[in-house]
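User: Please run a holo structure prediction.
Assistant: Happy to. Please share the sequence and the ligand.
User: Here you go; the ligand is calcium ion.
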Amino acid sequence: MTQAKALKALTLVFAGFSGLGGIGPATLSPSVAVAQESMPASSASVDATSPDGRTEISLATANGQPVYTVTRDGKPLIAQSKLGLRFASGANLDRGFEITETAADSHDETWQQPWGEKRTVRDLHNEITARFTSTDDGPERSFTVRARVFDAGVAFRYEVPDTGERALVDEITEFAVEPNATSWWTPAGEYNRYEYIYKTTPVRDIYRVHTPYTLKYDVEGADGPYLAIHEAALVDYAGMWLDQRRAGVLEAELAPRHDGTKVKIDGAFKTPWRVIQIADTAAGLVNGADIYLNLNAPNQLGDVSYFEPGKYVGIWWGMHINKYTWGSGPDHGATTGNTKRYIDFAAENGFSGVLVEGWNIGWDGDWFNNGDKFRFAEPYPDFDIEALSDYAANKGVKLIGHHETAANLPNYESQLDAAFQLYRDNGYSTVKTGYVADASDLVLEDEEGFRRYGWHAGQERVVHDLNVLKKAHEYGLAINAHEPVKDTGLRRTYPNAVSREGARGMEFNAWGSPPNPPEHTAILPYTRLLAGPMDFTPGIFDLMPNGEDNENRIQTTLAKQLALYVVIYSPVQMAADLPENYEANPEPFQFIKDVPADWETSIALDGEVGDFIVQARKDRKSDDWYVGALTDETARTVSVPLDFLDDGRSYTAEIYRDGEDADWQTNPYAITIESRTVTAPDTLELPLASSGGAAVRLVAGR
Ligand code: NOJ
Ligand code: CA
């Protein structure tokens, strides 16, 4: 008998005590020792089952070690995995424990997002808590593990009572997965934060990866399930990486603090939720990603109506392709004249925002390493912020702010009030922040005023980001962070956290070596984008800004650029190219003008990780639907049944698809734009070229 099966048997002993549909014993039964070859003696196990009855988590101890297992349809999914926390001083929470108290609960609530990929979210789950108590190695101590089981996956967190001021040095949470499962990942703990090309390998070949870490259980011809391991509600803690120990045994590795410890604790604390998303299909992972929102606390900010979802243009790509500079000089991008031109373009084409980078003092010289030079309330002399804010307001457009900090936290923090006041005075409502620096070179200051270096997702940065959000809210500002801490669903609690980067975005196509490969945006929806909105900045129409022979050309067709507006969700969605490239291509540009950035609902219809995706979304302000489909380097035709449309209603489908001979390498601009009438029983056949795509607007008839 495998370990997992043995644990299952143990759990079954208790199933008979369950009187609470799907939830294990609420009061603990006498401890049962099941001696199995590979199964250590255990106290008791408690379990909870998903509302659909398919997924089950069991909490138990094995030789005094707190452990958990997860099964799906009765089969092992996460084999027996350790739970525990270790500290620099005082008693650890890892050995000699037994379960002394349990409680069960279930929850069904529907709540609304002020903006989002869907308006209404349902939180339906069963919950079990287990109190683990130890009298081993020191004074009696206890902690609680709270586990929730949704149809879309399982989650658990530690709740630890007050034991004073301590340093957490190791979270030993394991995820014992199938070592031969295929997985999609970026390396963690390396210099470029989350900005890496995804790799596709069996689990057994990884060393240290970021989350969401996505796996497909495809051994022996199996076609799933799909898993994504991630975290929710990362607050006052360190971001979690996953390290592989024994084959298939992943262990939480926390991004360090400047002093090498992991989390500074003072009093009672709760860890973020450790989440294992589970789905039968790749599209199912995308559709189940609201699990992260459900695991975050409700809105604590109240009214955030100062933020309205929308599309923007900006003085941005011009710097990345060396047409302009951020710093002062003859090619300075952020001039009053240039900004007026962008405001005019935005107003003429229905964009609500204009981002301007390089407008403030500090960019001259080696800005990467001179974060202390940035002045966030001092424009360059050729950027007249007051005149521009009036000019924008008269045209019904808002400027979007930019704060590049070069990851110098003290310099930014000391100017936050002045910086946000300036933006508020000038009618801004969104600020893009940036933290460019090697991942371990985040500049900090300790209590004694010494310069220290921290990690990008270490506790200090996590705390900083939340402080910035709270402060921004005081000034009526929303934040779009680049070089961010990964998204863990905090936008539910702090809905001015509107978007972020946190993966390779479009900028890598301007200068990345190599640029993003064709499969990049066919992997993102199933990995990074599960976590939340991304400011990817799509919509480049000049696919060869550095010339045809340059390594840095955009490895997509033009139609695929349009598809990105539906596939990648962000409530601030950029049309990233230069205005002249849109003016020269008015027909495809029409789709960017039409597509919304705020949705009533979203459904991933089909896809496979790294191959393709078909995503449908319904506009929040009308009855129109939009479909985006894109593929990797393999051309394919996707069938899109339109059964999500209203019965009995006809729609005009405005289809933007790859032209007959389109191919990202040889003929990327070929695009066919056509219109036809469709109804719910119809199926659209969308031919996608090599690294191609399709974007469809379905305009509801009366
Ligand atoms: C990196 C950001 O991702 C990019 O959008 C920005 O233009 C540069 N940093 C400069 O702040
Ligand atoms: Ca970046």
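The longest helix spans residues 459-474.
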